[in-house]
Amino acid sequence: MRIIFLGAPGAGKGTQAQILANQFSIPQISTGEMLREAVKSNSPLGNQVKSVMQSGALVSDELIFELVQQRIQAADCQSGFIFDGFPRTIAQAKALQQAGISIDYVIEIAIADEDLVKRLGGRRIHPASGRTYHVLYHPPKQRGLDDITGEPLVQRDDDKDETVRKRLQVYHNQTKPLIEFFQNWQRNTTEKAPRYIKIDGTMAVETVTKTIMNVIEKKD
Question: Is 36 considered catalytic here?
Answer without folding.
Answer: no
